[in-house]
Amino acid sequence: MDREQWRPFLKRWSEEWIAAHDPECDHPLDEETVRDGWLGFAPASDADVAAAEARLGRRLPPSLREFLLVTDGWRDAGPFVYRLAGTRDLEWLADSDEAGWIEAYTEEGEPEEGEPDDGAILGRSLKLSLDGDACVMLLDPEDVDERGEWAAYWLSSWSGMGPERHDSFHSLMRGEFASFHALRQPPGATRDHWDAQVEEARRAALGGAVDDPLAVLAEAAEYGRRRAQLLRFQLLVLLGDWHTLSPYTLISSYVDTGSEPLFGPELLPLLFTEEACGPWGRPNPALTSLEESGPESVRALIADHRRRLREPGFPFPYGNPEFDAAVRRVTARLTAAPEGEGTPEGEGTPESEEARRRLGDAVWPELKDALRWWRPLSDDHLAPIVLLADPVLAALITPERGRELLSVPRGDGRAKG
Fold first, then answer.
1. Residue 131: CA count within 13 A, CB half-sphere
2. What confidence tens digit (pLDDT) does each residue in 93-114 have?
3. What is the reported pLDDT for 417?
4. What integer best gives the mean pLDDT of the chain?
5. What is the CA radius of gyration of the chain?
6. Is 0.90 surpassed by the pTM of this model?
7. Could you write out the DSSP letters of every residue in 242-257?
8. Is residue 354, in this structure, part of any structural domain at all?
9. 255, 287 contact by CB (below 8 A)
10. Are residues 99 and 49 in the same domain?
11. Same domain for 193 and 174
């Protein structure tokens, strides 16, 4: 990123930081910061940068050099770093009064194969941050890419994790900007941009696209767009990924009132599935937590779903009536095993497994065709993920078939097909 790119990015950062400032909770903003709408300082000169490089004995990486030529230092580099160094304050961590970080992350003996040597990285790194909440920002001069960029690190004593690696100083700053947005949700062009991107990704996903919407939604989620998480989750679970976003992690964002339209009919049933239980088995600890401490409306929804599960026929609906009826025709075939498709005697035998496979292959086109009847429950509904809460259908919908379902234009996206 050159200075022509840094300046508008940093100007937006400044404006949105000031817009999000809470005088009752945050430290006061400098008068000049508010007046100028700028968290930075005057630009460093080429001579200032050259002097810093001579003192440090290394040419600085391109994105940091260009940054300094826009602003010689920076205030509030994310929620937890209060000041970044300018050319006169850059120093090696080992030579600074924060060298204790190196000892804290140096372990005896060699690191395990494939694991980074955190102590060695810190011991050779350039310290970027001057003040922060028990955290530090660093650049590693021995980890350099083809552009001349040094790997960058963010490290805190309270995160419970080691140094968090980024490809460059610019990547690290973008991550801090996203972290600020995720925590503070400031108004402005950035929030508007990602909300528009999320809506575009939603429409593309309903039209049958998968990978491009996933990438957009993942980045939007970094900026704290909660809607992106909900949309992304629906794509991931149909692709067989229950770990990137666990049902409980997602649902915990929607339990304030239990009023989210997807909560009861689509999200909650997934907490009852074997896949969502992970290694704990039953009862699912996430579900237990909601039953014990969730809002009354959520506890009522859970109790109602438990009651339904005890009724014959597992009667909770799969969606709107037309889609529900089409899916029930499929499940009837899977459970009744019509003549010629039945499961042979000898449960668990290779013959019975082969019969199940043949039956699944036979009914799969019917389930795909049923999607033409499916209608979303809300503007945040991308696909009938409740199908995965039915063990019979969950066994049928492999990750590959889940991708097939997602590739079918549906709901608002049918015209794009």
1. 7
2. 999 999 999 999 998 667 777 7
3. 40
4. 88
5. 27
6. no
7. -SSS-HHHHHTTSTTT
8. yes
9. no
10. yes
11. no
